[in-house]
């Protein structure tokens, strides 16, 4: 695209980009609405963001993603694939987090990583002055590092519509749950009999919608997206009587688990309560009273 002197940080503008590279100072100068627009575009549209850190970035809380670091003394390392090429790093390392995904690492620590936010990703790196690789004649290593980082973070191709069900087939007159991922703001789902299925939007992922149907009749059925005639979900409705053996087995197992749990609770609740003879309380009382009567006289 043509060069732009300024870019509005709103969802309508940001959704046109696959990847954003931003330094810490620019990130910190954004307004709260700008930060929220970036976050929402990452979650809903799959925008990728790379944050170029500085010394202060690794010591403070990040406004965009929950990266955490701890200080170390290592300022030089090498890639596993290129052990002879030295890389300059900030004296920090990533703290292990469940959501942290490594992009590149050395023999001693992670060099670059990202975390997922919705269908998008936010990443950063502890590499410092990577341009020195080009000056030292290691252009291939420089290109490999950044192609991996930018390739992992950039927007992924997301299907316009993706269907999922909780089972391979449905049973007649029994509920079947399904979900659909779509970029449409308000998808309208209908059956092959033109009945509209009410949908519930996921709280965290706005592109994810869930629904439930109770099929009537045996055979192949279809769900359709009104806004996209190509997007369809074909599923088979089986006769309930044809699967009596499997259903009976599953019911037997469910009953067994239920009554086992109930019996264990009942056993605990019906354990005998041992009654304490009141004479012991009387003797304890007499001992205490006797001590209080004798103690001033001793």
List the helices and strands and how they pair.
Layout: H1 11-14, E1 19-23, H2 24-28, H3 32-45, E2 48-52, E3 69-71, E4 76-78, E5 86-88, E6 92-94, E7 100-105, E8 110-117, E9 120-125, H4 132-135, H5 139-153, E10 161-165, E11 170-171, E12 176-182, E13 189-191, E14 196-197, E15 200-201, E16 208-213, E17 219-225, E18 228-238, H6 244-269, H7 278-294
Parallel strand pairs: 1-2, 2-9, 11-18
Antiparallel strand pairs: 3-6, 4-5, 7-8, 8-9, 10-12, 12-16, 13-14, 13-17, 15-16, 17-18
Structure overview:
The protein is an alpha+beta fold. The protein folds into two domains: 11-153, Rossmann fold (3-Layer(aba) Sandwich); 161-242, Immunoglobulins (Immunoglobulin-like, Sandwich), CATH 2.60.40. The protein has seven helices and 18 strands. The chain has helices at residues 11-14, 24-28, 32-45, 132-135, 139-153, 244-269, 278-294; strands at residues 19-23, 48-52, 69-71, 76-78, 86-88, 92-94, 100-105, 110-117, 120-125, 161-165, 170-171, 176-182, 189-191, 196-197, 200-201, 208-213, 219-225, 228-238. The strands form five sheets. It has a five-stranded mixed beta sheet with strand order 1-2-9-8-7. It is flat, with a radius of gyration of 32 Å. The N and C termini lie far apart (102 Å).
């Amino acid at each position: 695209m043509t060069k732009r002197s300024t870019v509005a940080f709103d969802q309508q503008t940001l959704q046109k980009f696959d990847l954003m590279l931003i330094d810490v100072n620019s990130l910190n100068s954004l307004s709260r609405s700008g930060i929220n627009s970036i976050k929402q575009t990452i979650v809903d549209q799959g925008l990728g963001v790379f944050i170029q850190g500085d010394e202060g970035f690794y010591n403070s809380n990040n406004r965009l993603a929950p990266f955490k670091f701890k200080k170390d003394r290592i300022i030089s390392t090498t890639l596993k694939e290129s052990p002879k090429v030295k890389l300059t790093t900030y004296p920090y390392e990533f703290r292990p987090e469940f959501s942290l995904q490594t992009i590149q690492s050395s023999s001693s620590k992670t060099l670059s990583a990202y975390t997922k936010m919705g269908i998008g990703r936010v990443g950063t790196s502890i590499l410092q002055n990577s341009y020195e690789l080009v000056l030292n004649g290691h252009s291939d290593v420089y290109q490999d590092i950044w192609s991996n980082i930018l390739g992992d973070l950039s927007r992924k191709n997301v299907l316009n519509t993706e269907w999922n069900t909780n089972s391979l087939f449905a049973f007649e007159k029994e509920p079947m749950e399904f979900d659909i991922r779509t970029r449409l703001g308000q998808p309208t789902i209908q059956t092959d009999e033109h009945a509209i299925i009410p949908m519930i939007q996921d709280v965290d992922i706005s592109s994810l919608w869930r629904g439930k149907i109770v099929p009537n009749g045996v055979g192949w059925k279809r769900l359709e997206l009104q806004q996209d005639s190509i997007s369809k979900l074909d599923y088979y409705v089986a006769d309930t009587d044809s699967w009596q053996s499997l259903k009976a087995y599953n019911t037997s197992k469910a009953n067994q688990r239920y009554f086992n749990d109930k019996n264990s609770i009942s056993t605990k609740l019906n354990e005998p309560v041992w009654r304490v003879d009141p004479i012991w309380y009387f003797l304890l009382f007499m001992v205490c009273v006797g001590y209080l009567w004798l103690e001033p006289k001793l």
